[in-house]
Design brief:
Layout (H helix, E strand, L loop, with lengths): L8 H5 L14 E2 L13 H14 L1 H16 L21 E2 L22 E7 L6 E6 L2 H6 L2 E5 L1 H10 L17 H22 L4 E6 L1 H4 L8 H12 L2 H7 L2 E9 L16 H5 L4 E9 L5 E9 H14 L3 H11 L6 H18 L8 H5 L17 H11 L7 H6 L26 E3 L2 E8 L5 E8 L2 E6 L2 E2 L4 H4 L4 H23 L3 H23 L8 E5 H4 L3 H8 L7 E2 L13 E2 L4 E2 L1 E7 L4 E7 L5 E8 L2 E7 L9 E9 L3 H4 L1 E2 L2 E5 L12 H19 L2 H11 L1 H5 L4
Parallel strand pairs: 1-14, 5-6, 5-7, 7-8, 13-15, 16-20, 23-25
Antiparallel strand pairs: 2-11, 3-4, 3-6, 8-9, 10-21, 11-12, 12-25, 13-21, 13-24, 15-19, 17-18, 19-20, 20-23, 21-22, 22-23
Length: 724
Amino acid sequence: MPYSERQSPSTYWGHVRPRRLLHEDPGVIGCSWFARDPNDKWHVHANIFRIFITLLTAPFYLLMKTITVLIADHTTCRVNNAKKSWFVELSSIPDSVLYSSPSHGRRAQYGLTGTQPDWMLRVEFHADAPPTYDQVRWCDDIQRKGYTAMSYFMYSAFVLFREAGLTPLDPKPSGERQWSLKDRKRISECILHEYAAARARYGIPPGTEYIWLDELCLSDESIVDEREMDKQRTKELGRLSDIFRRASKVCVFCDAVGCDHTGLDCHWGSRLFTIGEILHASEVLVMTRTQLQRGGIQSNLTPWKADHFREAMKAKAEQGQRWHLLAIMQHAANCGAVPWQAAIHSLIVEAIRRDDQSRHRDHRMLGKALNGLLPRRARLDDLEGRCGWEDLAWLLELNQGFYNPASLAAVCNLSEDSTSRHRWLGGPIAPAEGNERLEPIVSAFPIDVPQPDNTRHPALCVIGPKTIPIQHQLRRDPNGLYNNKDVRWIRGDAVRGMFIATLVASFLTTIGHTTKALVLIYASSVAFCIVELVVSTMYIVREGWVYIDDTQWGPDIGKTLGAQDRHLRHLAYWGERQLVPKWDPIKLKDSNTQSRAGTLVDLNSRVAAKTNVLGVPNDLIMLAVHGCGITCMLLHRPDDPKLISPKVGMVNLPPYILVQSQQSGTVFIGGTPQEFGTPPVDMKSRRVSRLAGLASFSAGIGAPLALEAIAKVGATETRSYDPR
């Protein structure tokens, strides 16, 4: 904000804090030549030493200061918190994710397309009896006649199961599953009976039909070994999209009465596997439940052309502002309408969000649900399902020619406890009007970084990112008298006074009073230095970006910063008016750590942006043009450039940061939950230690200035700077 050229002395001196000459405020780096941190036990002594040397050598100090300021006026002087090691490219050679396959340890291979199911149900529908079925292996007869694939929500089948008066036979198994395999097969049979009744009402005569029903077709029914059965079922799930693509008809079912299966509130439509089951279907049979006037509920079949069904889903997605689902349906209708980068991004984000809504935080089925929907698919054995993020990283690297994972990294929230290794991933945010633009400005891909213990740690390798170092402490400006136009009149008065003193000293020298001339020069130099020291307590170095913890500095960051430098009282916030994307705060239950609200402030332009972090960031890397701004990942980068940098937050900043950035080579992003949760700085304890330090020091030297500082800390300054 603009200030007048000259202010009244009372207004000016109201911003002076002489006590800062002895002990700096919490979170502010002082002007001393060593022990600049106010927490340092030698901090007060260092400040006294600086004052003593400055006043003792005042004439020489002013001469050196004049030379320094003149040089600084003709050179670019910016605060740079970047560590030199960050820009040193060492011979780090990480492994490709595809170097070692999870299934056989050899190089990765693409999976084959067009695979068919191994098992099928041959169902006999009767006029006056329930259907009967037997499991058969895939054969040419099924290829000729075609088959119907059943798509349903397991809980919807359980509703039919209860309506039939049936109850589970086995207790609930451990883990996420609600029912045992035996009970799941019994529950799935209810879908078959419901389909038989709806089929008869529609007028389809009794006869034989091949049907694929997941719980009854995922494994060979003759196998009793549970391990072998699980192996077969896991492998079969990996070809789910192919099974439904090859089906002549796809029958969909939801237990909600009157549901047409195209709405966003449909249980069936919100499943993870629904996308793969319906995306390439050729014909859709909608099995809708209706309420009868005489009581009871019955299901009726309604055939849809698959294109018309997906068009209806697309319309509902548009009404509900589900833009990723809309893009997926547009891509299914016309592959050229949506580029592969956008289509793959929509598929991945929509799949992760559906899995999160189903409370499947480990995402074990994520890779299997996506396999077959992307341009390049994985071999079924390589998607083990033990870690969903591991399978996703494998698929991302297989599709490296079609998708840049920097887009995914730009929309992911902070990782939760369940993400033990791929910490750059997390639950993605949904796009909204105004921030749907997402164009990566870096290239990124998953890698494996060899560790000293011969293990491999997964990470995201970002190539050539633009970075900006982040300060987490303010810096007092020792040149405040020279760097701020609003005190130019004070500087002018001081210079004029020094000039007059020099003229008088010259006159005294010519008449033989050399000693008096030297005393006058020294006294005027001391006075000038005192003015410089006092003015320096009013300003901080307004260069670079600083991270401020809202929980420690208070919600009104402008007021807090204004107490340190009045130029920062009024901040321009980058946020609501720019429709920036917002990332959700999280809490790590295992470590009892919660993300903290913070503010990034550009001290030069006085622009601020809100964020949530799990630790103190010291660097940011720019990932993508996102909406009106640049989405950046906040990191806590180690000194060693070969080490993996933990991701501690996300933020969207104005585009002008591109000119403030520095080019880096490669950055590895990952980390583990144990590396997070840097405790916040306790400003209250810092305040107590500061008072104790001042009291002990003043008792030792009897300095009136130190006693004055103690009094002001409890009075005047408390009103302008309250870290609570």
